[in-house]
Structure formats: structure tokens, C-alpha cells
Amino acid sequence: MNIRLTPLLLATTALVCAATAADWNHYRGSNVDGYSPDAVNVKWLASGPKVVWKTATGSGFSSFVVAQGKAFIQLVRDVNGAPREVVAAFDANTGKELWATDVAVGKFDGSGNAGTQENNGGDGPRSTCASANGKVFVYTPSMELVCLDAASGKRLWSKDIAKDFGGRNIGWKSALAPVTDGDLVFVAGGGAGQSLLAFKQADGEVAWKVEDEKMTHATPTPATIHGVRQVIFFMQSGLVSVQAKDGKLLWKFPFRYNVSTAASAVVGGDIVYCSAGYGVGGGACKIVKNGAEFTAQELWKTPGDKDVANHWSTPVYKDGHLYGMFSFKKYGVGPLKCVEIATGKVKWEKPGFGAGQAIIAGNQVLALADDGQLVAVEATPEAYKEVARAKVVAGKCWSTPSLSNGRLYIRSTKEGVCLDVKP
Questions:
Q1: Whether this model's pTM surpasses 0.90
Q2: Positive or negative, the Cα torsion across 133, 134, 136, 137?
Q3: Could you give the 3-state DSSP secondary structure of residue 197?
């Protein structure tokens, strides 16, 4: 039977294909929110989804980013007899390594200094690179922003935030991931008057540098709130939102800091959620715009590590609710929870996930427990409704799954795996 495609049908087909083949080019996806509209197949057998490829990755908690047919990851390798942090590019379809570029010292001791003693939780990169416009951006533990050519791995430019911008690093060294938006790339960590920084992707020229804030491990969150594109930095003073194009301060939301803040801010409409461990807890604010002025109005705060607190596991938002691992140092046993973002009310919880990470694909929460189990759960506040579960990777999993073109890319402290989850 011959089928004639009309121009409208051709256009619609192209749009569907483009949506299905979306890149996952940041930590927590293209929108840095852990959400993909794509439906996935969760009717897998006990053995899990089909393995497309698998490769050794070694220690580290960097997540995969996938862009233009390549999967990028940061890992530690021996380079001329010394442990070094490298960025490696793999063919996203086959797992074949295409290039690897040395970017930083690969080991740090418990105080965050270069050394040979294993750090708490294991050695290796904590940050995740970003890819945009044919480039890969890396923010090293010592706060050097490095731009690489995505095709070859060649170093194009770099900026030493510690040396040239009065950088003030933190105890376990920087773990925040760079974030791109338009033609800019954002990081934090500079000194007075330049703690929040934006650089032009093309050549590394400073686009803007603003504020006097002390950094955390949290990755910035880009968002459009009340029609204004902004970047929300989760700093030691709390949330600091600036206009993406010029760094103009829009609003602040004070939030307590203690020891370490690692989970990123999460945006749900005009509500922004934030959280930290070490007894800090969670909270949310409503962003109000009056004329050109923004204000952040507190909705709720829940102190302590028991109910609504994230250590480094950033939850994902859908339809008024947060889904993710809410616990502090409950490795292997901490629960997956559903929390109403406007009130902080826990709708349901299920133990046994530990300090893993979760994303949402369509109507499914894809939760990666810290022991390497992949669990599909319906994204509904009604109740915990598990759909499928399988052990998919060996080693410790504190990294975030990445979804691109119907494939799930997962990394542990031992290996990286690409799984076929096409519907």
C-alpha cells in the first residue's frame, strides 16, 4: 500500500522525530531539570532493558551528557604515571571511545587537596560537563573552566576562576556543573563582585560578573519565570537569581548553609524549591513579579534531615509535585518520595533507594538506586506504583541517568552502560 505524506504530515513527523531524538546535553538534561517529555518502554524483563553497550568508567560520580551523537563523561585515568581527570567522548550508538582529553588533577584527599589518599565516598570527578554549539565545557575541582572542541577534544580556551577571578573554593573542592544558555556558559566561585560569572562560549570572553557570594556544590538552574529568563544560583546565603543576559540581580531567598549544599534548586512554575543535608532541610518560595520588580515569598521550610531534605540527590518536578530521593546519609535504605512543592507535604514514600538519583520520562519516574537498580515508577501523587525493576549496573551509583533518543545512559563507580528504552 502506498502512503502519500502531505506537507503537514511531513512536518508533524519531523517534529515528532526531533522531539524523540532530543539531546541530554547538561547535568539533568537539556533544561537542567531532570525531565524529558519522551515516553519510554518500561515493560522490560527482570534482566532489565536491552544493553546497547557497556564500558569501564572507574571511580567518580560524573553523569553522561549526550549531544550530536556523542556521549561525554569525566573520569580518572593514569596519565604519565599520575592520576588525572579526563573528559572522554564515546560514540553514543556503539560505545566506541572517540577521544579523551586531560583536564585536571585526578585525586583529592579528604580535605580536598591534591594527594593520593582516597576521598570520602571514592575518588573521581563529581562535576558533569555540558555540551553546546559543538563545544564541551568542563568545570574542574580547582575551578578552571575549560572549553573543548566536541569533535576532537582539542582545548579551545580556559579560564582559571581561582587565579584570575579571586576564586574561593570549598572544602571538598568544586562539584558544580557548568550550565549553558544561548551563547553563554555560567559558573560560580569567583571573589567579591565576580562570584557569579558568565562567559561567551565562542572565545571565553567575560559576558558579565556580579555579586559577592560564597559558592556551594550546587549546579545553577536556568529557568523562565514570569517571562524573564534567569539563572538561579544556590549559594551559601541561599538562592540568588540573576537575569541570564546581563547578570542583573532579580531576587534572593535566604536559606541556611551548613557544611555542604549540593542539590540544585528546582523550579515548578513560579515556585522554587531548595534543600540541603546536615540538618538544614527543605523549603520553597513563590516568585512574585510586580512591574519590573521580583520578590521571593516563603511558602514553607521544614528543618532537619527526616522529612524533606536532599543531600545531593536533586528531585524532579511534574504537575505540582517533586519526585526524588529525600534522605541524608541513608545509603541503600533511603526512600524515594513524592512531595507537594507548594506545601512540603509528603504524599508517599518507598524505602530502599539510598542516595541515588531520579529523572522523569513522560509519565514515568526512572529512579536509579545507589546500588545500581533501575526502578520505573508512575509519576503520580496518588500512591507509589512500581512498574518495573532491574539491576542494570555494578558499583555505587550517585550519578544521574541521562535519556536521549530512546536510550538511557547510566554511570557507576565501575562502569557506564547504554540501555535501549525506546517505546
A1: yes
A2: negative
A3: strand
